[in-house]
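Might you be able to consider the sequence and fold that I enclose below?
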Amino acid sequence: MDEAMDRLQPLLVTREIGVVVSEAGSGKTTLLDVFLSKVEGSRYRVIPISIPQARPRDLYRSIAASLGVNTSWFGADALKVVDLLTYSYLESNRPNLLVIDEAHILTPTCLNELRLLTNATGKHEAVVTLMLLGQPALPTILKLPALIPLAQRIPHSGQTHGFHRDGSILPPDRTFL
């Protein structure tokens, strides 16, 4: 798990896009929990999305809700969410870490919208770092022609092996919990 943690750590500095891929039940969420427990809440604003949405509007509502916005009246669109992320960054002086578990469920349209969100800047710096966690279908989805611009912006990616909840690695023949 230490190797996986060492590979995720640069994301916080570079504010780029990271992808973690592993089979179902092999410990991605455990890795995420351990990683987020080590992220200083005073330095980063973590925006977790554990149930990704299929439509961009619903995805924007999920992000807005994670930022504390009452989404019953919030007309979610890209510009409003960019404004929220930028305001969050400028107000708190903490970069946003947008973490999406089960990212293989996202549609190509939603993945492209997330790429566009990573373009937002404040103080000449990216206001959001994106981390996608998903099953082995995710790299295949990212190879679609429409997603090439996103795939080109992913310098940090890796496949994890299975983990026990205590952080120890499962034997290679037992990759599922």
